[in-house]
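User: Could you go from structure to sequence for me? I need the amino acid at each position, not a summary. C-alpha cells:
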C-alpha cells in the first residue's frame, strides 16, 4: 500500500490575516474608544515586543505554566497597547473582541482560495483511480496541519469553511471510523498540544503518529503502524525556510 501524508503549516500557508494583525489591532482599538496615539508601525513594534516577552516568560502560549492560551493572548494585547495609554488602562471590551476576532475566520482569509478544492480533489483521487495503472497513485491520502500555534487553529479553519476533523494530538481516539472523504483536514499537530515546536523533529514525528491513528480509524486498514507492506510519502507545505523547509527535511520529509 502506498500512502501520502500531506501536511500544511497554518498561519501564512492555509490562512492569512486580513488586513495585517497590527492594522486590525489599531482598528478594533479605535472602535472600542481607545484614546492613545496609535499608528500601525508603532503598534507593529509594540506587538512584536509583547509577543516575544510573553513567549520568553510563558513558553508555548502559557501551556506549561497552566496559564492557557486565552490569558496568554490577553497579556499580549495588554502589553501591546499599554505604551500608548498614559492611564495604564484599556477599554474593557478590547481584549475580548480581539480574542474572538482572531479565534475565528473573522480576522483571516484563506491564503489561496483554490486550496480547499485542491485538497478535496487530492483525497478523492485514489477512489477515482481504482482499476487504473498509475505509478503516482496513492491508496490513501491523509491531510494534516503541523503548526507552531495554540489550540485555536481548528476553529479558525472550520470558520473559514474547511471540513475539519476533531482529531488533534493528545485528544482521545476517534470512536467512529471516518470515510476518507469526510474531512479535508484529518488531524492537527499544534505545538501547544505536542509540547515542542518546529523545526524540532518531534512535532513531525507526532504527525506521523497521528496519520497512523487516522488510518486506524478507517475500516480499510486494521493496523497501519505495523503494516510492513505500507509505504509513506511525507510532504510538508510551509512558508518559513528554517522552521518549515529545514525542519521537515531533517525529519525525513519532503518540503514544498
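Assistant: Here is the amino acid at each position, in order:
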Amino acid at each position: 500500500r502506498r500512502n501520502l501524508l500531506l501536511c500544511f503549516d497554518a498561519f501564512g500557508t492555509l490562512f492569512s490575516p486580513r488586513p495585517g494583525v497590527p492594522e486590525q489591532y489599531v482598528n478594533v482599538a479605535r472602535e472600542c474608544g481607545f484614546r492613545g496615539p496609535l499608528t500601525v508601525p508603532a503598534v507593529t513594534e509594540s506587538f512584536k515586543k509583547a509577543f516575544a516577552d510573553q513567549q520568553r516568560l510563558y513558553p508555548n502560549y502559557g501551556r506549561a505554566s497552566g496559564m492557557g492560551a486565552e490569558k496568554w493572548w490577553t497579556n499580549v494585547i495588554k502589553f501591546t497597547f499599554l505604551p500608548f495609554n498614559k492611564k495604564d488602562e484599556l477599554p474593557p471590551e478590547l481584549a475580548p473582541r480581539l480574542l474572538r476576532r482572531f479565534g475565528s475566520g473573522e480576522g483571516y482569509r484563506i491564503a489561496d482560495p483554490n486550496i480547499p478544492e485542491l485538497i478535496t480533489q487530492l483525497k478523492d483521487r485514489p477512489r477515482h483511480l481504482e482499476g487504473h495503472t498509475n505509478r503516482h497513485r496513492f491508496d490513501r491520502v491523509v491531510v494534516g496541519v503541523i503548526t507552531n500555534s495554540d489550540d485555536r487553529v481548528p476553529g479558525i479553519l472550520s470558520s473559514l469553511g474547511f471540513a475539519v476533523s476533531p482529531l488533534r494530538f493528545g485528544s482521545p481516539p476517534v470512536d467512529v471510523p471516518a470515510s476518507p472523504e469526510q474531512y479535508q483536514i484529518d488531524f492537527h499537530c499544534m505545538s501547544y498540544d505536542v509540547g515542542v515546536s518546529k523545526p524540532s523533529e518531534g512535532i513531525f514525528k507526532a504527525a506521523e503518529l497521528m496519520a497512523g491513528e487516522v488510518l486506524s480509524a478507517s475500516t480499510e486498514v486494521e493496523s497501519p503502524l505495523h503494516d510492513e507492506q505500507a509505504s509513506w510519502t511525507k510532504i510538508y507545505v510551509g512558508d518559513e525556510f528554517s522552521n518549515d523547509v529545514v525542519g521537515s527535511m531533517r525529519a525525513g520529509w519532503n518540503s514544498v
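One structural detail worth keeping in mind: DSSP finds nine helices and seven strands in the chain.
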